[in-house]
Amino acid sequence: MRFTDQLTAAARSQHTMLCVGLDPEPARLPSHLPQGAAGIYDFCAAIVDATADLACAFKPQIAYFAAQGAEAQLERLIAHIRQAAPGVPVILDAKRGDIGATAVQYAREAFERYGADAVTVSPFMGQDTVQPYLQYPDKGVFLLCRTSNPGGNDFQAQRLADVPGQPRLFEHLATQAQGAWNSNGQLGLVVGATYPEDVAAVRRCAPSLPLLIPGVGAQGGDAVATVRAAYTGPGSVAINSSRAILYASQGADFAQAARAQALRTRDELNAAVPA
Ligand SMILES: O=C(O)c1cc(=O)[nH]c(=O)n1[C@@H]1O[C@H](COP(=O)(O)O)[C@@H](O)[C@H]1O
């Protein structure tokens, strides 16, 4: 099944637009879990079990695994998601970006090694560096567009004097992703919930692309304004929360607390859909 169809099916059947981010920080893991890579796996697998019916996607951030030498645990975790949450797609957050020959290897890593359904990619180096990911027609590719961090303004909000209408860089990117770059309908965009007005601007440029939207929860993004700006139906958005869910409790009840927080977030997002 194509990624966009998979995301839509999961969002529809579970009635959710919540993407659960898997960002395991060793210092924040409950102390009763084993130290090191084994603890990372146990923690994330328990979070997956606790939220499997609440998520339209899971988003493991590769750096949290690679920094601990826990790549094998990431492979195992993705296999676990296939069992515990069949039908819920895995978006590998890798934010890769490099020349085509190297991007071929990054695409292989994401889609063949880890078997992810979609990957995050930086479009900074241009269209040819995105192309290798599009050789996997069933897979999704989320291009960083209007990121959630304060420094996202530094380049992304600059106006392009040479492009008609002088759009901001992120708007130009969204237009390209909706049109010329999206040769096989695989592209989506990453847009931060910390800038709901810019989410709306992206949605105007890219009316039919799925948007991966981090920034609610720990980063303080406006969930309600974001849904109003971006949601156009099941599968149109995957709104990510990581730390607010993962570390709702650091005690033995961490998975229960994560579920409670995921439920609250799912319900808040669903309630924001205009009638
Ligand atoms: O691509 C991303 O997922 C991403 C893009 C962005 O603009 N901002 C952003 O926070 N992220 C990721 O989304 C997650 C946000 O985590 P929390 O702030 O803990 O919910 C982290 O894994 C970030 O790496």
Automatic annotation (TrEMBL):
GO terms for biological process: 'de novo' pyrimidine nucleobase biosynthetic process; 'de novo' UMP biosynthetic process. Pathway: Pyrimidine metabolism; UMP biosynthesis via de novo pathway; UMP from orotate: step 2/2. Gene3D superfamilies: Aldolase class I (3.20.20.70). Its EC number is 4.1.1.23. The active site is at residue 95. The keyword Cell membrane does not apply. The keyword Lyase applies. It catalyses: orotidine 5'-phosphate + H(+) = UMP + CO2. One of its GO terms (molecular function) is orotidine-5'-phosphate decarboxylase activity. It is an enzyme of class 4 (lyase). Keywords: Decarboxylase, Lyase, Pyrimidine biosynthesis. Residues 17-258 form the Orotidine 5'-phosphate decarboxylase domain. Belongs to the OMP decarboxylase family. Type 2 subfamily. This is Orotidine 5'-phosphate decarboxylase. The gene is pyrF.
